[in-house]
Amino acid sequence: MAADGQGLLPSGRGLAGGRRGRRAGRGPQLCAARSRHRPGARPEPGEPQPAGADPHPRAGDDLLAERAHVEEGPAGGRDANRPRVRRRELEIHVDDRERYGYRFARQQVVVRRSRLAAGDYAVLGEEGLLATVERKSLADLVASLTSGRLGFQLAELAAVPRAAVVVEDRYSAVFKLDRVRPALVADGLAECQVRWPSVPVIFAETRQLAEEWTYRFLAAPPSPAEVRVWAQREGHVVSDRGRVPGRLVEAFLRARSGDT
Known about the structure:
Layout: H1 2-8, H2 12-36, H3 60-72, E1 90-95, E2 109-114, E3 121-125, E4 128-136, H4 138-147, H5 149-158, E5 162-167, H6 182-195, E6 201-203, H7 207-219, H8 224-234, H9 246-257
Parallel strand pairs: 1-2, 4-5, 5-6
Antiparallel strand pairs: 1-3, 3-4
C-alpha cells in the first residue's frame, strides 16, 4: 500500500514544483497586464486602445511643449481675441539740450535729437508730443522744486497725453539731504502730485534703471483714452465707451512712429 500510495499520489515536492512552475509561467503575463493598466502606459501592438487614448503617444517633453502651446494659444491665449498689432522699432526723440542723454543701446530704438516742448525723452506723432519723460537727478529735482521751476515743468508735462518725471535716485535719499530740510522737499513733492496727478514722479534708484523705465514707459501700448483722443482729433468715428477697433490702434501706432 505504501508503494501504491507513492505511485498514485505525487510527492509534495512534485506538487510544490508544479505550483511554482504555474506561478512562474503566469508571472510575466501578470506583470504585463498590470503594466498595461497603469495610467499613461503604452498599449501593446495590436491591443485595443481605451477610449480617449492618443493613438500616437509622445515623449514627456513633447507633451509639455504641446500643453504650453495650448495654454498660451497662437496669439497669446486669453489675448487671442485682442487686435494683433505688429511691433515697430520705436523712435525716441531726445531733447537737444540734454547733455548726457540716454542711448537706449540695449533696446530696439532709433534715437533722434530734437527740440522738445516738454520733457527730455519723447515719442512724437503728427500733431506733436504723444508721450514724454522728464529726467532728473536728485540734486536737479531739489533745485527745481525749491526754485519753483518744477511747477512750470509739471504744467507743461500735464498737457501731454502721457507724461512722467523719472528721478535717478531713491526716495529715501530725500530724507538724507543736509543742505535742505528733507520735510520741505517731501511736502513739496506731495503737493505737486496732488496738483498734477496725471504726471507721476518715479524714483528709479539708479541711472540705468531710470533709462530702462523711461524706455518701457514710452514703448508701452497706448491706452484706449489715448487712441480715442487721437481718433477724434483726426476725424475718425469712435465710440466713447467700449473697446477701440484694432484698425484705429494700428493707425495710432503708425502715426506715432511716423509711418504713413
